[in-house]
């Protein structure tokens, strides 16, 4: 039992369970062209972990059989997986909605020149990381030159209709630049729209605010600043029971680059696989056992339930 699980059982009388699997999230590898300070999976250009085609084939079989509402591709930079195009095209041929979490700057890498058009042709939804509309804040989190490249990538996406047409979704993601909770999502979205339009003439579909979890590189940063305990205390004291119904782990399953199954991407980063009797690998996939499974929790889960809540889809309440 951890503090989060104790809080849930005290409140509801039961551990946390999933309700269904609507979204299958697939981590295609930990290689990335960036090395961001807040990255919970510690992705970088030096990482070599990558999902191979036999594992992707098993994911495809599962997705085709169960027809999920969404297949959500992430990394690292998922576009750097050598099987990325083949995988997405196979998913789309079977009528499965696909969403890709892109860091934007990868679209400016050599060989990626036609990615915006390819995304449009395959009707892929995009969720793009832009942790602030101010250059200095993005530079602090993601490195020098990333802000300018991100803006250039959004302009390319806008040019082919992303963030402009209703059927070409381009969502941006905000992450706090320090040990604090995100601002209110709707008001921050208005600020993003105004600032990005005035400065660069660019637009987007929605803004998603995501709380930084005290894991991965962000945890290391908290330790360097000697504020790890204070941040966890903030998350615990900001616990909001209204967020429990919308927690992503209750409707989502994550597949690691090696086929291991996780309740969420944050558990993936921590190496805490599905447990409590449910199968923990794609080779043993059993929807009857996974659909209604007991969630593996930890104190990092307070990050998803703090304030307005946080998920891969933004605020929860």
Question: What structural keywords apply?
Answer:
single chain, 317 residues, alpha/beta, TIM Barrel, 8-stranded mixed sheet, 12 helices
| Helix-strand sequence | HEHEHEHEHHEHEHHEEHHH
Instruction: Detail the poorly predicted runs.
Output: none
Spatial ordering of strands, largest sheet: 6-5-4-3-2-1-7-8
Number of domains: 1
- The CATH class designation is Alpha Beta
> So, CATH architecture?
Alpha-Beta Barrel
Structural class given helices, strands, pairing?
A: alpha/beta
Q: And the CATH topology?
A: TIM Barrel
> How many β-strands, per DSSP?
8
Label the overall shape.
Answer: globular
Largest sheet: 8 strands, mixed
Q: Radius of gyration from the CA trace?
A: 19 Å
Helix content: 25-40%
Share in β-strands: 5-15%
How far is the N terminus from the C terminus? 27 Å
Give the count of helical stretches.
12
Mean pLDDT: 96
Structure characterization notes:
The protein has 317 residues and is α/β, with parallel strands linked by helices. The protein has one domain (3-305): TIM Barrel. Helices cover 35% and strands 11% of the residues. Strands 6-5-4-3-2-1-7-8 form an 8-stranded mixed sheet. The longest helix is centred in the middle third of the chain and has 16 residues, at 185-200. It is globular.
């Amino acid at each position: 039992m951890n503090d989060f699980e104790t809080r849930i059982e005290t409140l509801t009388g039961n551990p946390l369970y999933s309700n269904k699997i609507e979204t299958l999230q697939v981590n295609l590898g930990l290689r990335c062209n960036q090395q961001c300070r807040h990255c919970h999976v510690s992705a970088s250009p030096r990482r070599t972990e990558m999902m191979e085609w036999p594992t992707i084939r098993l994911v495809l079989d599962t997705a085709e059989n169960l027809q999920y509402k969404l297949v959500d591709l992430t990394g690292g930079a998922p576009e750097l997986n050598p099987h990325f195009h083949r995988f997405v095209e196979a998913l789309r041929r079977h009528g499965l909605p696909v969403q890709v979490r892109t860091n934007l700057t990868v679209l400016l890498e050599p060989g990626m020149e036609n990615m915006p058009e390819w995304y449009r042709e395959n009707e892929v939804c995009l969720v793009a990381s832009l942790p602030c509309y101010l250059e200095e804040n993005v530079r602090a989190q993601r490195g020098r030159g990333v802000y300018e490249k991100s803006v250039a990538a959004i302009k390319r996406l806008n040019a082919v209709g992303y963030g402009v047409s209703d059927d070409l979704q381009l969502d941006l993601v905000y992450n706090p630049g320090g040990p604090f909770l995100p601002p209110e999502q709707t008001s921050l979205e208005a600020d993003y729209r105004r600032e990005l339009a005035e400065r660069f003439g660019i637009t987007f579909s929605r803004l998603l605010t995501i709380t930084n979890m005290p894991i991965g590189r962000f945890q290391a940063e908290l330790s360097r600043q000697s504020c790890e305990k204070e941040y966890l205390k903030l998350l615990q004291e900001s616990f909001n029971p209204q967020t429990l119904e919308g927690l992503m782990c209750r409707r989502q399953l994550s597949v690691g680059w090696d086929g291991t199954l996780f309740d969420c991407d944050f558990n993936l980063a921590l190496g805490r696989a599905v447990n409590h009797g449910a199968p923990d690998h794609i080779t043993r996939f059993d929807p009857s056992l996974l659909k209604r499974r007991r969630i593996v929790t930890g104190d990092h889960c307070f990050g998803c339930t703090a304030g307005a809540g946080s998920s891969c889809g933004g605020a929860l309440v």
